[in-house]
């Protein structure tokens, strides 16, 4: 199975130079790394281009800060693959887990690296951040069977995304896929989320407000889909 690893970046030169060799160590073959960069000013694109001489890499250079979720979508559109793995560039998603995700996606339609199954969790988070994260998950729990609905570290088969219109707000591309993609089988694999190694966090208040609007859109989407399904049944 051919895998495309989608990595959105914004000023991640220090991290991406270390991450790409780690991705190769985990996957070895039959993969390509798609780095989608939002016009970084710190030399991220230069670092990626240098590494492309040694590793299978595609750079998608965008003109400005257009957002993480749209970066993932652009990365998927830019590269045909049997399955996609989405991960952050800042080492909060352990690259050594990529082999587990690839193994899982050979059996399941969707594989989620999860903080909310036995063995998963977070490291080094203050109480306030834990409360906000748990509240965000509770608000969206009715939308999907996936327990860690805000996970941004996941693998999904390309076939599950055919004829699916992804239109997320903010940065929760995983939630958009968990709700809208046409997957049947899935598994959640435990992992420990840790804060970024280098650089500063891009999480801002505006992102949380976008998440709330995103939830609203998804609830409306599911209500409409259920209504259409009921109407179709009545017409039979």
Structure description:
This protein is α/β, with parallel strands linked by helices. The chain has a single domain, classed as Spore Coat Polysaccharide Biosynthesis Protein SpsA, Chain A (Alpha-Beta Complex). Helices cover 40% and strands 18% of the residues. The protein has 7 helices and 9 strands. Strands 3-2-1-4-7-5-8 form a 7-stranded mixed sheet, with helices on both faces. Helix 1 (13-27) packs parallel to helix 2 (44-51). The radius of gyration is 18 Å and the shape is globular.
Keywords:
single chain, 236 residues, alpha/beta, Spore Coat Polysaccharide Biosynthesis Protein SpsA, Chain A, seven-stranded mixed beta sheet, two-stranded parallel sheet, 7 helices, 40% helix, globular
Would you count the extended β strands for me?
9
Order of helices and strands: EHEHEHEHEEHEHEEH
Strand fraction: 15-25%
Low-confidence stretches: none
User: How far is the first residue's CA from the last residue's CA?
Assistant: 40 Å
Which CATH architecture would you pick? Alpha-Beta Complex
Specify the biggest β-sheet: 7 strands, mixed
Would you tell me the structural class of the helices and strands?
Answer: alpha/beta
Spatial shape: globular
Count of discrete structural domains: 1
Secondary structure tally, helices: 7
Query: Helical content, roughly?
Result: 40-55%
Q: What's the overall average pLDDT, rounded? A: 92
Spatial sequence of strands, sheet with the most strands = 3-2-1-4-7-5-8
CATH superfamily: Spore Coat Polysaccharide Biosynthesis Protein SpsA, Chain A
CA gyration radius, whole angstroms? 18 Å
What name does CATH use for the topology?
A: Spore Coat Polysaccharide Biosynthesis Protein SpsA, Chain A
């Amino acid at each position: 199975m051919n895998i495309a690893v989608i990595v959105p970046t914004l000023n991640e030169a220090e991290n991406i130079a270390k991450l790409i060799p780690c991705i190769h160590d985990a996957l070895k073959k039959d993969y390509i790394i798609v780095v989608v960069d939002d016009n970084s000013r710190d030399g991220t694109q230069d670092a990626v281009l240098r590494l492309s001489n040694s590793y299978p890499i595609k750079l998608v250079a965008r003109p400005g800060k257009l957002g993480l979720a749209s970066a993932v979508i652009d990365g998927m559109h830019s590269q045909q693959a049997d399955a996609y793995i989405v991960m952050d560039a800042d080492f909060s998603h352990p690259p050594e887990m990529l082999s587990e995700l690839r193994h899982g996606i050979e059996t399941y339609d969707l594989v989620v690296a999860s903080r909310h199954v036995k063995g998963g969790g977070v490291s080094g988070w203050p109480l306030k951040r834990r409360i906000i994260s748990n509240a965000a998950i509770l608000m969206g729990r009715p939308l999907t069977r996936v327990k860690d609905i805000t996970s941004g570290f996941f693998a999904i088969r390309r076939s599950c995304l055919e004829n699916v219109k992804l239109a997320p707000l903010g940065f929760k591309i995983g939630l958009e896929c968990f709700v809208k993609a046409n997957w049947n089988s899935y598994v959640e694999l435990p992992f420990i989320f840790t804060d970024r190694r280098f650089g500063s966090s891009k999480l801002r208040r505006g992102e949380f407000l976008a998440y709330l609007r995103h939830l609203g859109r998804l609830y409306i989407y599911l209500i409409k889909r259920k209504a259409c399904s009921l109407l179709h049944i009545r017409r039979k």
